[in-house]
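Work through what follows:
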Amino acid sequence: MQTDSEAKAGPAFPKVYILLAAVLALALYNFLGTPASHLPGVRTDYVPTLTADEAKRDAVVEAFRHAWLAYERDAMGDDEYHPISHTGSNLTKAGGIGYTVVDSIDTMIIMGLEDEYQRARAWVADKLSFERDGKFNTFETTIRVLGGLLSAYHLSGDDPVFLEKAQELGTRILPVFDTESGLPLSFINLALREGAPDRDNGGYVSTAEAATLQLEFRYLAYLTDEDTYWEKAENVMATLRASAMSSGLAPIFLDPKSGQYQTSAIRVGSRGDSYYEYLLKQYLQTNQTELVYHEMYVTAMTGIYTHLVKRGLSGQLLFIAELNPERTQNGEIGWRLMPKQDHLVCFLGGSLMLGATTSGALVHNVSIPPRTDELTDDGKRDWLTGVELVNTCMATHDTQTGLAPEIAHFRALGDGMGDSVASTDWYIKGARSGAPPPFDARYILRPETVESIFIAFRLTGDPKYRDYGWAIFQAIEQHCRIPTGGYASVINVDQVPVEYDDKMETFLMSETLKYLYLLFADSSVLPLNEYVFNTEAHPLPVFNPTIRTGFS
C-alpha cells in the first residue's frame, strides 16, 4: 500500500471522505441525541436519485462486449479464457461445459445484447454437453452453470432450452448428496454421475461449498415440481443447524460422513463467505416465509458482530477479522484472532444493509434511505456495520492502480509493526519495495466490492456509491483491459505499469460488469424486492414455496 506522499497512477478515490465517513458514522452511533428520523451512517444532504446514468451504463456495456467478443473469437465454448495468449482452457481433460458461456448469458439479456445472446443461446442448444468423464467442482458448477441456466430461463421468458439443460445438470449433480450425513461431496463426475471427495482437504467439504447450493436447487425444484432437488439441498441446512455452534459462527470445514464441523478457521472470507450470504438469501428467496433461515441469519450476524468486527489502530476502519484454532497449554482448543480480511469479505457490507432492510425491518416497505424507526435494534446495528464495511473496502482501493488487493491485513495492538511498514490501518502483508509481490497483492477482477456498492446505492440513492463504482470501473479499464480484447488479472496492485496474469475469470462478465451495469441502470431493472442474486450474481425471482420447510 502506498504512503500518503506517493503519487497515484490510477483513478483518485475520495480517501479523506471515506475516512471521515467512517469516523462520522461511529460518532453518530455513539451519539444518543441523533434524531429519530436520521439513521446513523445515512447522509441527509442529497435527494435519492435512482434513474439511469446512461453514459456510464453504456460504457460498462462496451466493456462487456470487449471481454465477450474476445472470448468468442478465441475460445468459444471453453471453460476459461486467457486474453494475452488468445487461448481458452477447460477444467478437465475430458473437456469443458462452457463455464464462460453459461456464466455470461444472463448479463447479455440484462444489457440488451441481442446478437451476442442469440449466438450464446445457439451454442447452449447445439453444443453444450455434460457427458464429461471428469471431476467438476460441485459448488462452482452449481453457482456458475446451474445458476446461469436457471437465470437465463427466467430472463429469456421461459425459453425451454435453458430449463432442459438445467434439469439435466441438476440430476447429474444429485449423487454428491449420497453421503452418510447428506452433506455434498466436493466434486462430481458428470458422465459417471458419481461424487468424489476433495483429497487435498482430507475428504472434508468447505462450509461455503456445502451451504451455497440451496438457491439453485430449490428454484429448480419449484420450476420442475421435482421435490428431490429441494429436499437434498434443504437437508444440508438441517444438518448444519444441528451441528451449529452457539455463537452462530461456522468453522470452514465439515465432515460429509458425520455431518459435524471440524476444528478449522472461522472466517467470512474464502470457504466460509457464501454460507452467511445464503442464510439471508434463502429467507428472501421464498418471500420471507421460512422463519428458520431468519433465525439462523440473525444468530450468525450477531456472532460476526460480537466476535469478528474489529477496528484499525489509526483510522478506526471497521474490518472483519478471522479466528484460527490453536491448542492451549492444557490441551484445549483456543482461538487466535487474525486481523486479516479477504477481498471476498466485501460482499458482506451490502449484504448487511440488505438484511437490515428486510430481516431487520419493522415495516414492509422500508424508505430509501431507511429511517431509524423502520428498523429493529439488530437492523440498525447491521446497517451501520454494513455502511462502514463498504467504506473500508473502498479504502483498500488506495493503491497505485486504484484496485484492491486479494487480501488486506490490518494494524492491531501489539503487532510490532512501525509506521514505516504500515502508516495507516491496512497493508499488504509481505509487500516490500524491490521484492517480488506477495500473493495477497493481486487483483483478479473480483466483484465483491461493486456488489456491495450496487446494493448500497439501491437502498440509499446516495450518489457517492455511483462515484465509488465509476472509480473502480475506470481503474479496471486503465489497468486490466487488454487492447486486443478481454481483461487480465493484475499481479501487484501497487505496481505501475502493471504486470499481468494471463487469465480472465468468468465472474468478470457474470458479476463484476453486471453489478456495475446495474449500479448505473434505472432502479426498475431487477428490483431487490423481487429478485435474489445467487453468489455468482445470477438473478432468481422471489417465489412463494409449495414445499414446507422440513426442519426448524
